[in-house]
Design brief:
There is one protein chain. It contains 6 helices and 10 strands; from the N terminus they run βαβαββαββββαααββ. By secondary structure, the protein is an alpha/beta fold. It has 2 domains: about 5-90, Rossmann fold; about 95-185, Winged helix-like DNA-binding domain superfamily/Winged helix DNA-binding domain (Arc Repressor Mutant, subunit A). The strands form 3 sheets. The chain has a 4-stranded parallel beta sheet. A 4-stranded antiparallel beta sheet has the order 5-6-7-8. A hairpin with a 2-residue loop joins β5 and β6. It is elongated. The two termini are about 40 Å apart. The relative contact order is 0.09.
């Protein structure tokens, strides 16, 4: 089973060329027109790339090949580079409640609003989100590499500042909350 699927959109000649060598490619090839494209059910676990000769606003992960002719090796190189870019982009995004956290840019976003995070804030959010009900001592040890016996208010200060930023940008006063079990993300 291929985890990468190349959808060739209304580009019959390219499909016929690639289909001839399909057995030696590391991705599955599909051909479709507009009607067929709208009916495709895409598995979110696969890496998709659509090739067209023109820009189509309604299609994500679109590669436009309009500067032909190119050597077949060059076309395959471009396709594989775009598959890698898609994989990298998909792996960099984590869903944190209603927010999206982009690990590459260290931005947390919701709808049209974005907040830049520090590396420490990003690590803090990921650690709390993955474990739920995290104690200050766990955060000191695992996010800051401090000794759990060290008396410091670093964790509380960072959480206070992060809460303040989340409230200013998103109006969210309850993003990180704490109870008797520790810190959690809402």
């Amino acid at each position: 089973m291929h985890s990468k699927i190349l959808i060739i959109y209304e580009y019959k000649n390219l499909f016929e060329i690639l289909n001839e060598i399909a057995e030696s490619l590391n991705f599955k090839i599909l051909y479709c027109d507009k009607k067929e494209y709208d009916q495709i059910k895409l598995d979110p676990n696969n890496n998709y790339l659509t090739i067209s000769q023109k820009k189509i606003d309604s299609i994500n992960n679109l590669l436009i090949l309009d500067n032909l002719p190119l050597k077949l090796e060059k076309i395959l190189e471009i396709i594989n580079i775009n598959f890698l870019k898609n994989k990298f982009a998909n792996q960099s995004s984590i869903k944190i409640g209603k927010y999206n956290l982009d690990l590459n840019s260290r931005k947390i976003s919701f709808r049209d609003k974005n907040l830049d995070l520090t590396e420490r804030e990003t690590n803090l959010i990921i650690f709390i989100n993955d474990r739920k009900n995290v104690s200050v001592k766990d955060l000191q040890k695992n996010v800051w590499d401090y000794s759990p016996n060290l008396e410091t208010h670093t964790v509380e200060t960072h959480i206070y500042r992060l809460r303040k930023k989340m409230k200013e940008i998103f109006g969210d006063e309850n993003f990180i909350f704490n109870n008797h079990n520790g810190y959690s993300i809402n």
